[in-house]
Amino acid sequence: MDARLDYFASPSAGRVLKHFMSAGKALKDSPLPAATQELVALRVSQINGCAACIDMHTKEAAAAGETPVRLNLVAAWREATVFTEAERAALELAEEGTRVADAAGGVSDAVWAYAAKHYDEEQLSALVVLVSFMNAANRLNIITRQPAGHYEPGQFH
Length: 157
What we know:
7 helices
């Protein structure tokens, strides 16, 4: 499968994506735990069906030491016993933040309170921005049918 567009060949898109990718780098340096970041990025990408991002975040998480069991259970995290309470709170917030159109009220107060119980304000800020960032990245890739399978860990760092 070929992508519909090569973002990096377009001067306009290249300028915008340079800044967009810088935002992604800033998130990596946030106080939100790296494992949580990859799990959230993966779950958002699964919900949206973004193969390129699933490929990327599965491989990045594995390269950072994430176990195959946990990676394989992200899609069914509610029933899995391998995630911490904090990770579960982040995954739940990520799901409600991604499925905004499906949830009339957006992220519920209960889900927000559960996340706030496990993360401080700086970490919550990073989590919210990460969920938003991943939804945007997913849409960029899905609209242009970016292919998956060839990502190498660290490729965009």
